[in-house]
Amino acid sequence: MGIAKSKKTEILAPAGSVAALQAAVMAGCDAVYIGGSRFGARAYAENPDEAELLAAIDYAHAYGVKVYLTVNTLLKEAELSELPAYLTPYYLHGIDAVIVQDYGAMRLLSELWPDLPLHASTQMTLTNPEACRLLPKSVTRIVPARELELSELRRLREETALELEVFCHGALCYSYSGQCLMSSLIGGRSGNRGRCAQPCRKFYVCRAEGKTERKGYFLSPKDQCMLAHLPELLALGVDSLKIEGRMKNPLYAAGVTAIYRKWVSRLEASGADAYREEEQAELNEDIQTLAELYNRGGFSAGYPFSETGREMISLARPNHGGVLVGSGRVHPGGNRCRVQYRQPVHAGDILEVRAALGAEERVLAEYTAGARETEEARVVYLSGGKPGSGRASRLGQELPGEVSVYRTKNDALLARIERECRPGTRKTALAARFTARTGEPTELRLSGEVSVLVRGAVAEPARKAPAAEADVREKLLKTGDTPYRLEPLSVELAEDCFLPVSQLNELRRRGLERYTEALLAKYRRTPPRGETAWSGGKTLRTDAETSGGAPEAVAPEPGETVPLAVAVMSLEQLREAKKHPAVRRLYVDMEGEWQACLREGADRPLWLALPRITQGKRLENLKTALAALSKEQAFAGLLVRSLDALAMLKTLPLSVPLAADANLYAMNSQAARWLLSQGFSGLTAPLEENERELGWLSGLPFELVIYGRSVVMVSRQCVWKTAFGCAPQDGRRLLLQDERGAEFPVQTCCTGCFNRIYNSAPLSLLPYLEQGKRLCPSAFRMEFTLEDGDDVRRLLTAYAQPSRSENAEAAERRPETRGHFRRGVL
């Protein structure tokens, strides 16, 4: 497999702090991504304030390293108005790009600063080239969904002119990024807003009818490691290899960066053959080092190179697994064991004694190796513990005879990484020319990305010994902790010249400072004429305002009805919905029994709700199906759930209206305007805003979901396959029960090989319909997913009841949630 020698692949490192940025730069990265004090997808990282971040940008740029600022969260209306002022200092200072998820932020920044490169976050869930054609010109790079196969990445590379950034190492989400509401709806901490509580790393009991229950961390993928597959990625033409880990410490960022830097540079220099055949032992050692830094039950190569299922899931442990370094036998009585090390152990290493107890791997003891730790056996006292923890707890189970010893902190490895990434270890070569002539000022010219000339004191005639060229070179080459080394260095020295050491040092210092100033000046941007910072007014005006004002919305009178839309997945649900006189619009979900529903409902106009994920061949199959149905005029409109599908629809000769579902997030007016400009005639109110925050939607065409079991995850993983083995059957159901007893229904979609995980309780705003009316929606929507015909009939009857007390009594008979309508989200 050939690798293009002329193409340099970027190593993109995580920086959860300024210290991590500096460590990654020293380790050899080409770019870093970092969050500021607001709007980043890692709200709990050590994000720097404005002054710290501006200094960090200069630090990286001095080494030729790019800095990408994360604004990859959904923004509420009030927040969006604050975004320009927040970004202005970084824009002027020379930030290299901004990573965005929110359509409104994308639209706003594209209009405000057309010269600022934008990177489409993996949170946008882009899986096909079609969606890329919708993005504005300011978007220069895409970070596609991590679920793509290698052939799908190749199609993105071949069919778009955008840069392609691919995650190569680190943690994986169970859900498609940007499609997860689990943390948000369970605890009010939104992954779409950088505050994920990681319910995917929790312990679950899995139950399915006719099956023995299973227990484990079913939603916790192993960390990804693509080191062994770099030849395929480089041959593909990937522009940037992204390392996940902004919540990790600086030594993790540096250690992982250094290993990927080494192998990418080697591949670009010598090609894939040597990488695969002659250096396999070294490659395996580096993979072991990566595992020492962090792994969850080992590594997977990720979706481009692995099958879904158990091999990608860390079922027994959700956090750092360390590496196996020994084993032991439990003494009679179970309070201690004798361990034997198989690998060298160093003073300061943290070690865990573990045993598999039931579905979990439990920590029986945790200890720090002492100065005399050797490969000889030692006795360790057991206290029992929680999974992934050294804290004592009663085991309540009989211990096995054999236990394993894992190292979770390799102190010698971390000390080595710290030495190798200390300040000043990375240098950029500058061509230098020093000139000293008697009676003239000394001169030092430095040339690299820029060129500068500095002059020093006048060189005086030597009274005793003249300056020697070797001594001059020695002094000028002492660049210390600066980002530079002088190479090559040319010295032109008069024979009778005297040069004090202090003058040489001062000339070198001023020369390097002047070079840095000139280099950083290249990055600076200037504000628009007459402005020192963006004022905000014109760019935030909506399309409606510039064309004469938005239509004034009038809330219905008390008792006045709002049109009702109903979405169904089954034929049974459709039959009940058709009977109810309040239903004005019917959506048939194409992730359910849509073909049977189209036949049954041919007597009235039906809308099709498109699949949430249209990855790869699914998009082409969907296009073929819709083209055929369109000729038959089998549907009256389409509810769209992905940008991929929207772009595909624009290639079809359709004349039906399109509506955007809630997962095409319209969290603010700019996002709404962008979606409407793409051809949508209607929107869906976002599920992560409360009653007050939704007020900005008034006057726009939108539907408010008042009932439905929300999809909290869409995953290319399959819980059924992980728990019970692959048994293809669309619509197969099971339950995941968490540690609090809440049960989350899971439904298979084997046609596309993915799962939907639903919230443990359905959203119901039936007691709050009057409050919903004040938002002036075009319609209310009820979404039926797992309900049977009796449920549909009962719920539609409850909707028609004007009595709040009757609705409240109905709510008491079944678990329900108000979602974020009352409480809001962080």
Give a verbal description of the structure.
The protein has 826 residues and is α/β, with parallel strands linked by helices. Helix content is 30%, strand content 23%. It is built from 25 helices and 37 strands. The strands form six sheets. Strands 25, 26, 27, 28, 29, 30, 31, 36 and 37 form a nine-stranded mixed β-sheet that branches. The protein has an eight-stranded parallel beta barrel with strand order 1-2-3-4-5-6-7-11, surrounded by five helices. Strands 9-8-33-34-35-32 form a six-stranded antiparallel β-sheet. Helix 1 (18-27) runs parallel beside helix 2, helix 9 (250-270) packs antiparallel against helix 11 and helix 17 runs parallel beside helix 24 (789-800). The radius of gyration is 31 Å and the shape is globular. The chain starts with 9 loop residues before the first strand and ends in a 14-residue tail after the last helix. Residues 1-5, 385-396 and 530-551 have low confidence and may be disordered.
What are the SSEs and their pairings?
Blueprint: E1 10-15, H1 18-27, E2 31-35, H2 50-62, E3 66-71, H3 77-93, E4 97-100, H4 103-112, E5 118-120, H5 129-132, E6 139-142, H6 150-159, E7 163-170, H7 182-187, E8 204-207, E9 214-216, E10 223-225, H8 230-236, E11 240-243, H9 250-270, H10 272-277, H11 280-293, E12 299-300, E13 323-330, E14 336-341, E15 350-357, E16 360-368, E17 378-381, E18 402-409, H12 411-420, E19 428-436, E20 441-447, E21 451-458, E22 460-461, H13 469-476, E23 484-493, E24 497-498, H14 501-521, H15 537-540, H16 543-546, E25 564-568, H17 571-579, E26 583-589, H18 594-600, E27 606-609, H19 617-631, E28 637-640, H20 643-649, E29 658-660, H21 669-677, E30 683-684, E31 702-708, E32 711-715, H22 719-724, E33 733-737, E34 743-749, E35 754-758, E36 763-764, H23 769-773, E37 779-783, H24 789-800, H25 804-812
Parallel strand pairs: 1-2, 1-11, 2-3, 3-4, 4-5, 5-6, 6-7, 7-11, 10-12, 19-23, 25-26, 25-37, 26-27, 27-28, 28-29, 30-31, 31-37
Antiparallel strand pairs: 7-10, 8-9, 8-33, 13-14, 13-18, 14-17, 15-16, 15-18, 19-20, 20-21, 22-24, 31-36, 32-35, 33-34, 34-35
Helix pairs in contact: 1-2, 1-9, 4-21, 9-11, 17-24
